[in-house]
Each structure stands twice: as C-alpha cells, then as structure tokens.
Design brief:
Number of helices of chain A: 10
Strand content of chain A: 15-25%
Number of domains of chain A: 2
Strand order of the largest sheet of chain A: 3-2-1-4-5
Radius of gyration of chain B: 20 Å
CATH superfamily of the largest domain in chain B: Transferase(Phosphotransferase) domain 1
CATH superfamily of the largest domain in chain A: ATPase, nucleotide binding domain
Number of strands of chain A: 12
Largest sheet of chain B: 5 strands, antiparallel
Distance between the termini of chain A: 22 Å
Shape of chain A: globular
Family (chain A): Belongs to the KAE1 / TsaD family.
CATH topology of the largest domain in chain B: Transferase(Phosphotransferase), domain 1
CATH architecture of the largest domain in chain B: Orthogonal Bundle
CATH topology of the largest domain in chain A: Nucleotidyltransferase, domain 5
CATH class of the largest domain in chain A: Alpha Beta
Structural class of chain A: alpha/beta
CATH class of the largest domain in chain B: Mainly Alpha
Distance between the termini of chain B: 32 Å
Oligomer: heterodimer
GO molecular function (chain A): metal ion binding; tRNA N(6)-L-threonylcarbamoyladenine synthase activity
InterPro entries (chain A): ATPase_NBD, Gcp-like_dom, KAE1/TsaD, Kae1_archaea_euk
Order of helices and strands of chain B: EEEHEEEHHEEEEHHH
Keywords (chain A): Acyltransferase, Cytoplasm, Metal-binding, Nucleus, Transferase, tRNA processing
Strand content of chain B: 15-25%
EC number (chain A): 2.3.1.234
C-alpha cells in the first residue's frame, strides 16, 4: 500500500510518498521533499509567517512528490498528516491541505503524532529493533522506551527543548539560520577549544536548559563588551567558537547522561537518536562512546530523516492505517499539545 | 539499577592494591559501580561506590561533575547520619579518584523482600486486606524514615523501593530464609541508600515530588501493596512539623503529574 504524508509542525513543510510491501519487506521511500522557511539572522520564526509559507508551498510540493514518486491519485491508499505537537498556525495550514486532498481524492485521513513519526521512521531506516530513543529537536527533548503498547517518556526537558536553547543562542550571536541555526553552531564549535563553566542541570532522567541559555547569553554579552578576555587556565583568547563549543559539550553530555540512565533502567544497550538535533555529529560521537562502553551501539539517521519530513508521517500513518486506524473527517483536528505516550501503539507487541 | 556485565570494567586503583580484599561487583548503574570490599580490618565489610571516568564527557567537565557528586553525596550522608536519619555511614572519600567508601548494610532492598512476601502471601492463599499487620508495619517504618530525612532538610531525588533497604538483625541473619522465616521477611530497620541524586531542600514541592516518585514506584513495582501506601503517608504526616503541608502539596503534584504537557 502507498501513503502520502504531510508534515508542517514547525518551519519546514515536508511531503513524502512511502510504499509498504505485503511480505513485510523494508518500506520503499518513493519521494521525500521538503521546503524550509528561513528567518533572518537574529530572529526566530513566527507562527503566522510559517503558516503563510506552508500555504504557499503545499500544492507545489504535493505535485512534485507525486511526480518524483511516479504515482497517480489512484495509487494512494491514505493521506497522513501531522496532528501535533507543534505550532498551532502551521499545523492548521497543513491539516487544511490534508483535508482538502482527502475530500478531493476520496481517501481516508490518518492523523499522526509527530514524535511517533520520528521514532517509527528511525526504526525503519536503521533497523534498530527495540532501542531507547533520544528525541531531540527544536521543540522536544525526550528519552523514550517502548513498553506495553506505548512509547513511554522516561525523561524529558523540564523547560525549553535543547534545540530551542541552541537556536536562541544562534540568535544571540546573530549567526545565520540557513540551513539551520544548530548546524551553524556546530560548525563554529569545531573551532572551539576552551571549555567554559556552564550550569549542568540533570535531575534524574530529566534535564533543564533555560539556566544554561541565560548563562551563555551573559557570557556572550561579556565577550562582546570585552573581546580581550583570556582563559585563566591556558591564557588563550576566548572566542565565540569557544562559547559554541562549551554549550555543545555541556548540553550533549547532559543528553547522553540521561539516555544512559534510561538504558540502565530498562536494561537495553541500543540507542536511537531522532529529531533535528540528532543530525549533530558531536552528539552522535558522544552517544557512540557511551553506548560502546555499555557493550551496545548507537543508531542515527542523516538529515533526510532526522529533520522534520513528510516521509516519516507517511510511514507512521501507514503503519497505523494498516493496523486499522483512521481519522474521520470531523475528528481531523490538530493540537499543539500531544504527548508521545498518548498514542496507543497497536502495531507493536 | 542492575544490568548484565558484558565487558570488563575499570577497577578503581584503591581496590587494585594487593592487600585489599578481593572486590566483588554488586551492581552497575548508569553512573556508578558498587563493590563490596573491606575497610581497615578484613572482618569489616564495606561498600565502595565508584564513578569511573566517562569518555564521552570533556575531561574538565567530567572531573568537575564527579568531584561535585561524590562530595555532595558524602556531605548529605554525613548530615543525615549526624541527625539520626537511617543511612549508611561514610568511611572514606576520595573525590579526585571518584570513590566513596560506605558502611556495608547486611540485608536486602525493600523491593526484593516485599515481592517475596507478596508471593508468599499469594501462595498461602491469604486474601488482600487480611493479615496485613506486618506489611502495615513496614509501610509505617518507611514513612517515618522518609519523614525524618525530609525533616532534616534533605530530599532524596530518586526514592524507590530499590533505594530502601531492610537491615537484617544479626541473630536472624542465618535462618531468615531457611525455616519459616517468611514471617520475618518484612522485619528489620529501614535504611535509605543511594543519595547520589539527593539535595538540600526545604521546599514542600521537592518533598512532595519525592513522595510522589515513591508512590509511583509502589504502583508500578508492587501494585498489590499500593493500597497500603496511605499508611506510609500517615506515618510520614506525623514525622515532622512541616509534613502535613507536604501531604497537601502531594495532592497537587498527583493532579498534574511530575510531567508537563508537551508543547511543540
């Protein structure tokens, strides 16, 4: 069966076409297209602007995705869309498009939880069977493990998400949001050497990033006022790159620590990283060091699947659809708050 | 807490001395390894909690965190001990090497004993709600111990039935399991262990979250004993002056859960 997936919970609109085979073979990605709304340096993206961007692009992308996949309307089994969580206005604009297609083409609708989309796509691509999942993006930070028909959240950020912390620091530094603020911080961090003292806020399996952002913002302001600051230990000049380096080393150590605690708790040695921040190579490297120390391994995907995309919504929606789930038109709403553990995972044992 | 050993673990240098008693690895958590060894005399057992270096962490950050955590745990144990809260005593500390040597508590964690007792009761055919005196007694002792800890201004941060131990009484040690020892299964002093995530706090919110975590642990690990959690709270309520306000706060914490609703 073939499904079309529409994703637009944040500043990316993605459309994907996936095909599942009857004999349980790996799914085929027929097309996976995305367009990103990039805000100017120093600014974040506003919901109204993002929604406008999605409305402008959705039809073009659907046409292109169908053409690339080489499928016709008759081939499509169902239309999957992101029900939540995410920003209200962008979610709505994409839900409207999904409803329109459903009525126009007379296809069933499937509302998908964005986080479950990431997890299922990650499992499909990497082949990780029952991993502990670290889901890290601009809006979410969660450590998840599967148990009894639910993706259970073992730990999460108690305030802002880790990606939000990085994005906002990129704004402080006025660096480019293209292709993504986190990517540009990662490139800068590669040149950093001095580790500055930042708060380290892990509470059991939960963590907090707001205090770290405040501290690094203060350090950045001090550096701007006095660019001649030197590290008291090595005597080296402190640079913006050192700030990015310190921020990454600290927040990623926190993420790896809470993931390790969850792994010890559930007795698993596989870890899967999903979400936009999961593209970060330093995070992947640190996670790998931890997992290897526990005799396990880390699974990660590249930017096609880590960053929000339509194919993951198509995939997770199609799995649910094949298990008998669909969303009637009158219930095809979207919601900003939709916890990962609210979804009944009927398709797993 | 425990996991199966799949790879050789680094031994802390202190246990590598030829004169020390051969160390026995007891559990391996995410952050620390727990060994059994001896202290000063070969006849005096001790527990050694070792935090090995984490290769994924920047060495500066790793040293800073390990030092801080070892010292914080040692200080809190000392504080509890001084004020009469039942915790293991501290024998020695080396925060630079990352270890903490503690009194060895002979006994088992509440989780194990309670599950054994619940199984024994089911096999005997006693219905829930009958002959629960012993269980009530244990719940009371747990409530008192937690209350005492909160009373001196310490919150645990990870209260579960795996972090509460039942200390065996010396004379009962041998026959505990051999002959009809089941009646004694829930006996013994309650000792609070693993203060690795503990902190000093007098906020009722933090104390209420401690109780909530314990309540959830009972619910998920011992659903058949969950009904008696009220007894823990009753005993807790009488244990120190601020306890009734904490119990009031616990109702709020229960309503919202510890977790926030997810945005974005």
């Amino acid at each position: 069966m073939i499904a079309l997936g529409l994703e637009g919970s944040a500043n990316k609109i993605g459309v994907g076409v996936i095909s599942h085979h009857a004999n349980g073979k790996a799914a085929s990605v027929l097309s996976n297209i995305r367009h990103t709304y990039v805000s100017p340096p120093g600014e974040g993206f506003l919901p109204k602007d993002v929604a406008k961007h999605h409305r402008i692009w959705v039809v073009t992308l659907v046409k292109e995705a169908m053409a690339v996949a080489g499928v016709t309307i008759a081939d499509i089994g169902c239309i999957c869309y992101t029900k939540g969580p995410g920003m209200g206005a962008p979610l709505q604009s994409v839900a409207v498009a999904a409803r329109m297609l459903s009525l126009l083409w007379d296809k069933d609708l499937v509302g998908v939880n964005h986080c479950v989309g990431h997890i299922e796509m990650g499992r499909e691509i990497t082949g990780a069977h029952n991993p502990v999942v670290l889901y890290v993006s601009g809006g979410n930070t969660q450590v998840i493990a599967y148990a009894e028909q639910r993706y259970r959240i073992f730990g999460e950020a108690l305030d802002i998400a880790v990606g939000n912390c990085l994005d906002r620091f990129a704004r402080t530094l006025q660096i480019s949001n293209d292709p993504a603020p986190g990517y540009n911080i990662e490139q800068l961090a590669k040149k950093g050497k001095v580790l500055l003292d930042l708060p380290y806020a892990v509470k059991g399996m939960d963590c907090s990033f707001a205090g770290i952002l405040t501290t690094i913002d203060i350090l950045a302001a001090e550096l701007k006022a006095n660019p001649e600051q030197r590290d008291p230990l090595s005597g080296e000049l402190i640079t913006t790159a050192d700030l990015c380096f310190s921020l990454q080393e600290t927040v990623y150590a926190m993420l790896v620590e809470i993931t390790e605690r969850a792994m010890a708790h559930v007795g698993s040695n596989q870890v899967l990283i999903v979400g936009g921040v999961g593209c970060n190579e330093r995070l992947q490297e640190m996670m790998d060091l931890m997992a290897r120390d526990r005799g396990g391994s880390v699974f990660a995907t590249d930017e096609r699947y880590c960053i929000d995309n339509g194919i993951m919504i198509a995939h997770a929606g199609l799995i649910a659809y094949e298990a008998g789930f669909k969303t009637p038109l009158e219930e095809s709403t979207c919601t900003q708050r939709f916890r990962t553990d609210e979804v009944l995972v009927s398709w797993r044992d | 807490m425990t996991s199966i050993l799949q790879y050789p673990l680094p031994l802390p240098p202190i246990l590598a001395h030829p004169s020390s008693t051969a160390p026995l690895l007891i559990t391996q958590g995410a952050e620390a390894l727990l060994y059994k060894s001896t202290y000063l005399l070969p006849s005096l057992p001790c527990a050694l909690k070792y935090r090995p270096r984490k290769p994924y962490r920047h060495p500066t950050l790793d040293t800073r965190l390990t030092k801080h955590r070892i010292l914080s745990e040692a200080r809190l144990l000392l504080k509890c001990r001084k004020e009469g809260v039942p915790v293991p005593s501290v024998y020695a500390v080396d925060e630079g090497q990352g270890w903490l040597m503690l009194e060895w508590i002979e006994g088992e964690v509440v989780r194990v004993r309670l599950n054994e007792w619940l199984r024994w009761r089911r096999e005997k055919g006693t219905a829930e709600g009958e002959e629960e005196g012993e269980l009530r007694g244990l719940m009371e002792r747990i409530g008192e111990a937690v209350g005492m800890m909160h009373g001196v201004g310490v919150v645990h941060g990870d209260l579960t039935t795996s972090n509460l131990m039942l200390k065996s009484r010396e004379h009962a040690e041998v026959n505990d399991h051999a002959e009809g020892g089941e009646e004694n299964l829930l006996a013994g002093e309650v000792i609070i262990i693993d203060l690795g995530l503990a902190s000093v706090s007098r906020f009722e919110e933090d104390r209420a979250v401690d109780l909530y975590v314990l309540e959830r642990a009972f619910g998920s690990t011992h659903p058949r004993a969950e009904g008696l959690f009220e007894v823990v709270l009753e005993a807790y309520g009488k244990s120190f002056k601020g306890a009734p306000i904490v119990l009031k706060r616990l109702e709020d914490v229960r309503m919202r859960g510890r977790k926030r609703s997810m945005l974005g």
